[in-house]
């Protein structure tokens, strides 16, 4: 059954999704309070505020969303927080703390705070079902627009028609295919799984569906190209039944051993320290059904990266670290940090060879204690994330015994891109071990959240553990 996962218990998330479908989509009640929120009129207001007023600026997703919703009514702002909750319910590649913070921030626009003991914001619920993949994060505004359009459409139906569409698989397929969408949109897979977890696999991308079916020899590459959502579901259901018949007592999951190895392309490489997992990213991983996706969104202006560097510098300075910035960025970044100027270094107090120093000096932000580097941050604001990873790998190759914590900082939507690239063989087979063991991901939103913490001067850098995310 796709309801079960070898790695963890996903039943709290499934129970929350079932409750949301029943009380919000079929009925009009709220997720979080005992009142109506998912009414046609409030959904229409959210549609006007978000869909009819897109923001193509350089800010991060949450900042733009707050701007789009700031003039809406409190009820619409609260509904948007609940829509964001629903949108983020499936992905497991975003920390529950990040989801919770973003949902609370949008709800707070209404002038009210969500209760601390909110069961639907619990860790077990927000841990998610499976990876949303790069396409979902890259196009989150489009995914949210699609969710709003789905809700707006179903609210035009009677309650009995809504219930049929969300409980009968054939009716669901007919309904969701009738709602216009930009690109292929992964949320259609997520909602389909939530509605039919005994019928649909926990897969949010047809790329993975096709790779699984090809890996198990169910269809040929030529045959699979033309299969639609329903046909792919049918083939996977047949495959699961076949596999389960030979192992009736085993929980089978296509993303876990022993099934994953047969289709994923992941490889185990033996090293002196044991086996290491490596991944060679495919072009098709960049987005599902590329021909259906919109063009790559405009890249954030470089000034946003300076803002993030400035926030990282301020956080470190407040915690008592000395701060190093590359000479080329130093002037512009320091202008963005009010106070804390005494924390900035003009020269590195390090005794390394010139090659190592040349590498270290180019890292976007360093936190130092005395003559030791405590943490290094590379801020990646462009589509390619190679430069930061290469610099981190160069540093470890030059100084394999260096005890330093490394972080790639990038927009939320580049999380999966960072993780995929970090798992390449060139980064996974370093002499001192995989880069993924030494280097973590921190989102722009997390940096903003850390920067807004009170009492930073009385906080140590272990707080980063609450915000960093690992590839493994």
How do the helices and strands line up, and which of them pair or pack?
Elements: H1 11-26, H2 40-51, H3 61-69, H4 74-87, H5 96-108, H6 123-126, H7 133-138, H8 140-154, H9 159-167, H10 169-178, H11 187-195, H12 206-215, H13 221-224, H14 229-246, E1 267-271, E2 274-278, H15 302-318, E3 322-324, H16 327-334, H17 354-361, E4 365-369, E5 372-379, H18 386-398, E6 405-410, H19 415-422, H20 425-428, E7 439-443, H21 444-451
Parallel strand pairs: 5-6, 6-7
Antiparallel strand pairs: 1-2, 3-4, 4-5
Index terms:
alpha/beta, 3 domains, 472 residues, 46% helix, five-stranded mixed beta sheet, two-stranded antiparallel sheet
At a glance:
The chain is of the alpha/beta class and 472 residues long. It is built from 21 helices and 7 strands.
In words, what does this structure look like?
- This protein is α/β, with parallel strands linked by helices.
- It folds into 3 domains: about 180 residues, no CATH class; about 90 residues, no CATH class; about 160 residues, no CATH class.
- The strands form 2 sheets. It has a 5-stranded mixed beta sheet, sandwiched between helices. Strands 1-2 form a two-stranded antiparallel sheet.
- Strand 4 and strand 5 form a beta hairpin.
- Helix 2 packs across helix 4 and helix 15 packs across helix 21.
- The protein starts with 10 loop residues before the first helix and ends in a 21-residue tail after the last helix.
């Amino acid at each position: 059954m796709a309801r079960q996962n070898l790695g963890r218990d996903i039943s709290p998330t499934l129970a929350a999704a079932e409750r949301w479908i029943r009380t919000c989509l079929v009925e009009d009640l709220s997720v979080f309070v005992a009142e109506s929120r998912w009414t046609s009129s409030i959904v229409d207001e959210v549609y006007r505020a978000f869909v009819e007023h897109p923001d193509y600026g350089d800010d991060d997703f949450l900042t733009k969303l707050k701007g789009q919703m700031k003039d809406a009514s409190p009820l619409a702002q609260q509904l948007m927080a609940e829509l964001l909750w629903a949108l983020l319910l499936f992905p497991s590649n975003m920390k529950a703390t990040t989801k919770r913070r973003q949902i609370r921030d949008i709800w707070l626009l209404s002038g009210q705070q969500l209760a601390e003991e909110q069961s639907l914001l619990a860790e077990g619920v927000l841990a998610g079902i499976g990876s949303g993949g790069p396409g979902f994060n890259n196009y989150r505004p489009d995914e949210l627009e699609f969710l709003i359009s789905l809700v707006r459409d179903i609210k035009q139906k009677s309650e009995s028609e809504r219930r049929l569409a969300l409980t009968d698989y054939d009716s669901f397929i007919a309904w969701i295919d009738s709602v216009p969408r930009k690109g292929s949109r992964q949320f259609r897979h997520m909602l389909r799984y939530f509605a039919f977890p005994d019928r649909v696999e926990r897969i949010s991308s047809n790329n993975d569906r096709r790779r699984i079916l090809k890996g198990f020899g169910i269809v040929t590459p030529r045959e699979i190209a033309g299969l639609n959502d329903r046909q792919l579901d049918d083939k996977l259901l047949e495959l699961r039944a076949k596999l389960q018949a030979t192992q009736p007592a085993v929980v089978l999951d296509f993303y876990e051993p022993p099934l994953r190895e047969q289709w994923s392309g992941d490889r185990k490489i033996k090293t002196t320290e044991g086996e290491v997992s490596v991944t060679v990213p495919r072009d098709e991983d960049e987005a599902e059904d590329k021909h259906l996706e919109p063009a790559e969104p405009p890249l954030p202006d470089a000034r946003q990266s300076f803002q993030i560097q400035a926030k990282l510098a301020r956080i470190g300075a407040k915690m008592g670290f000395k701060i190093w910035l590359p000479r080329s960025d130093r002037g512009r970044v320091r202008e963005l940090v009010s106070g804390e100027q005494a924390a900035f270094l003009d020269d590195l107090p390090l005794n390394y060879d010139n090659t190592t120093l040349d590498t270290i000096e180019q890292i976007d932000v360093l936190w130092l204690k005395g003559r030791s580097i405590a943490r290094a941050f590379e801020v990646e604001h462009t589509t390619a994330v190679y430069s930061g990873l290469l610099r981190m790998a160069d540093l470890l190759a030059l100084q394999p015994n260096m005890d330093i914590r490394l972080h790639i900082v990038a927009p939320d939507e580049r999380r999966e891109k960072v993780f995929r690239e970090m798992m390449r063989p060139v980064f996974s087979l370093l002499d001192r071990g995989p880069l993924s063991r030494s280097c973590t991901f921190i989102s722009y939103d997390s940096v903003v959240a850390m920067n807004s913490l009170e009492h930073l001067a009385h906080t140590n850098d272990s707080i980063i553990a609450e915000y960093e995310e690992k590839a493994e």
